[in-house]
Amino acid sequence: MSRTLVVAVGAGVLLGGCSKPTPAAPQHRMEIRTVTGNTVQFIPAPDQLPYCLIYTQSEKGVTRQMTMTQSNHSVPCPAGEPVLGRRFRIPADEGKVQVRVLFSDQRLDASTVASQVVDMATPAFDPMDLRLPGRALLDSQEFLPTEELPPLVGEVVKPPPGDGGPFTAPR
Q1: What predicted TM-score, i.e. pTM, was given to this entire model?
Q2: Domain segments of the chain as ranges
């Protein structure tokens, strides 16, 4: 009987030491890299579909297409590089925005997608809800822009040569 008790206690100790793994934080397909309070870069994660469209939907109900091009089609989104090599400004006075990034395996007409995104301004929708050709994946994240600080005007950046400052030319 003592042998059974020892085995039961040992098994209980081993099972009690096991804990359930904590679920990992959701992995996003696009990094939103803050440059300033209201300026960001969108950086695609590795192994994403080659084209993307980026929209923001603010708390005030304003939907913006961030990847606006002359052809008005989705843009190439190489992994690890800022989309279009640009920074994007998100107005702080509109509050928190929902950033919707739609990755696709082919170039999409952005105006057609935009009208569908506006129609589905719900917090969560699936790319299956959109009428898109080919394969598409959606990443949705929140971002809260902050007001940009005004530049400081009138400060001396570099004293003129010869005034004894640290930038005086040698004699």
Answers
A1: 0.69
A2: 30-143
